[in-house]
Amino acid sequence: xxxxxxxSSFLFILLMLISLPVLKAQELxxxxxxxxxxxxxxxxxxxxxxxxxxxxxxIHNHLAYFDNLDSLDHYLEQxxxxxxxxxxxxxxxxxxxxxxxxxxxxxAVSNDRFKVFFSPxxxxxxxxxxxxxxxxxxxxxxxxxxxxxxxxxxxGLTLRxxxxxxxxxxxxxxxxxxxxxxxxxxxxMIHTTDPKAFHAGPVDRFNERYDELHEHPEWSFYGDxxxxxxxxxEQRNRVFARHPNTIFIGAHVGNLPEELGRVAMxxxxxxxxxxDINARxxxxxxxxxxxxxxxxQYQDRxxxxxxxxxxxxxxxxxxxxxxxxxxxxDPTPAHKLQGRWMxxxxxxxxxxxxxxxxxxxxxxxSKFKGI
Length: 371
Hints:
By secondary structure, this protein is of the alpha/beta class. It is built from 15 helices and eight strands. The chain folds into two domains: about 30 residues; about 300 residues, TIM Barrel (Alpha-Beta Barrel), CATH 3.20.20.140. Helix 6 links the parallel strand 4 and strand 5.
């Protein structure tokens, strides 16, 4: 009889031990990783930088893409509030002559505070004399006020010609455009490939940008239908070598902020190559020692950019990152969620800040030969 009682008690206790985690889980509910927004318990210095130490030129923005040019007056107000001197819009599309509309819109507000870069129409790549014709349109845009050329990431990655093959960045049909930029003394802003996590593997538990790619699976360029990231970057670098008189600005820290050592090698090898920091302070800020050394060493080749609608709050996160030694803060308001990590300020010297904020951009723009 006692044995039965002991056995029953043991089984009851065992059942409770097994059930407790299940009951606790039911009580807490399930939490998806993409819904997890932990609040840090870390108590550290927080510096609010309302305006930068030096006037800012935002070399990388998309004023037409964000709001169809309907918010230029509002953007100007935000720029004034945040100490931004000038914003460059990269949306001067050749297709349907949109660059003319864009130039007209900024001229109506302020052609001193806004500038436009021309973007070629690569849907015409199969037309005879494509490069020559687009170079002629580029020159027309420059006469109207455009001050650079923008190349989007579809070149080399997704753009196909009539053969069905992907058009490489170094396709000779594009050479007249690179050459024309050198002739006119205007820079090329070139976006080639995306973050490593968008190329390096499937969207699974090992992918550090899972949140973004789960939300936007079309941002993944992993698979046999796409060329490798390295292959496309090599195509781009061959263009740098082939056109030494043309200045190229590698968007997004040369599109390889995860490997600053390789970006440094490119900067050493190609004197006509510059980079901007737009939409990548989340990458730079998680490697603060390496990034600080890199930005001090290459201070003459780095430009400020955001890739974000002109917004005082967004700019101020950038200033905090560049100017302070604050620790472990959220970069998301500067652009968007890009990874589940915080960043650290670089506390750059004033002479470096001034070059990144405006001097390097002014140096590039001063090369414009006029028409």
